[in-house]
Amino acid sequence: MAQSAAPAAASSAIPAVAPISLKEIAPWALFVGILMLVLLYFVGAEQGATSLISGENVHEWVHDGRHLLGFPCH
Ligand SMILES: [Zn+2]
Q1: How big is the chain by its Cα radius of gyration, in Å?
Q2: Which stretches are transmembrane (predicted)?
Q3: Cα–ligand 1 centroid distance for 1 (angstroms)
Q4: Is 39 helix (H, G, I), strand (E, B) or coil?
Q5: Would you call 66 exposed, middle or buried from its count of C-beta atoms within 10 A (0-12, 13-18, 19+)?
Q6: Residue 18 CA, distance from chain mean position
Q7: 50 Cα: distance to centroid of ligand 1 (angstroms)
Q8: Over the stretch 29-68, which tens digit does the pLDDT of each residue have?
C-alpha cells in the first residue's frame, strides 16, 4: 500500500537549517574574542610588574596552562 512508504520517506527527510548571518554572529564573536584576550592575559602576563591582582593566587591557578602554552615562567 502507499501508506506504508510514507513514514520511511518522512524519516529520511533532511530538516531545514536556518542560516546565521554574519551580522547576527558578529557581537558574539567580538564578545568571545575579548573573553579569550582576557584569559590570555591572565595566563600569559598576570605576573610581576604587569600584575593587576596582588599575590600569587592567579599565577598559581593558571601555572600549568602557562607551561603548556610555552610562556616563560621559571
Ligand atoms: Zn612555572
Answers
A1: 25
A2: 25-44
A3: 72
A4: helix
A5: buried
A6: 22
A7: 16
A8: 999 999 999 988 888 887 777 778 787 788 888 888 889 9
Q: Which of 37, 41, 33 is nearest to 58 (CA)?
A: 41
Query: Which amino acid, one-letter code, is at 60?
Result: E
Position 58 scores a pLDDT of 82
For residue 47, how many other CB atoms are within 10 A of its CB? Answer: 19
Ligand 1: centre distance to CA 67 (Å): 6
- Enter the C-alpha cell of residue 31: 564578545
Q: Supply 1's cell numbers.
A: 500500500
**How many whole angstroms from 43 Cα to the centroid of ligand 1?**
11
Amino acid occupying residue 24: E
Give the model's confidence band at 27: pLDDT under 50 very low, under 70 low, under 90 confident, else very high: very high
